[in-house]
Amino acid sequence: IWIAPVLWLACVVGLVSAQEGAAASAGEDTGPVYAARVLEGDPETFTPLGSLAEESPFEAELSFSPFGAGIEALTLAHHFVTDKQESHVTVQHARTIDGIEAIPFALLAVEIEGQRVDLVGLEAPVWSETETGHFEAIIQDDSGAEIARIERRFELAERGYDIILNQTLTNLTPDPIRVRWIQTGPISMPK
């Protein structure tokens, strides 16, 4: 299985300029406190992408976790644990490692101007599904003003095993902001 290189990033340092693309300026963080907007209710159950059905054009099914908008499971459609073909092979899945829930390809947090903003959403949901495989979280300041929109878009190729994750952070302020992504990559298979 080939996974697009963008998924293998564990931490990416980047710079997000104002909407016109201005360069960021250095300075101390003395501004407001940032947080992900909390959604009402329990975490959403997200729609799987792809299919395990024999007649499907997909070779896999991706199910998603509401925590960090990561992958709950990546299951192969035409590969089975035994020759009885009763159970599909799962090559990535959320699992507990030393008491910590590990979610493949989850966006754990972003740092905006040095402030860490939690995006896992364990205490309350922060990710909404905008369409199958596409997720959004909004960062706001302590006055409730929207600062940034984060989008994660998973794509699964038909008749192949390619998975692409495009993620963007859109600066909703007139000023440049400095951003650092903190995310997981693949989770090791159990032994």
What attributes characterize this protein structure?
46% strand, 5-stranded antiparallel beta sheet, mainly beta, 4-stranded antiparallel beta sheet, 191 residues, 15 strands
Can you characterise this structure?
Strands 2, 11, 12, 13 and 14 form a five-stranded antiparallel sheet that branches. A four-stranded antiparallel sheet has the order 1-15-9-10, with no helix packed on it. The two termini are 19 Å apart. The protein has strands at 11-16, 34-36, 49-50, 60-64, 71-80, 88-93, 95-97, 100-102, 107-112, 115-118, 128-131, 134-141, 146-156, 163-171, 177-183. The protein is mainly beta.
Give the overall average pLDDT: 83
- End-to-end distance, in Å? 19 Å
Total strand segments: 15
Strand content: over 45%
pLDDT < 50 runs, ≥5 residues: 1-27
Q: How would you sum up the global shape?
A: elongated
Radius of gyration: 18 Å
Structural class given helices, strands, pairing?
A: mainly beta
Count, helices: 0
Assign a percent range to the helix content: under 10%
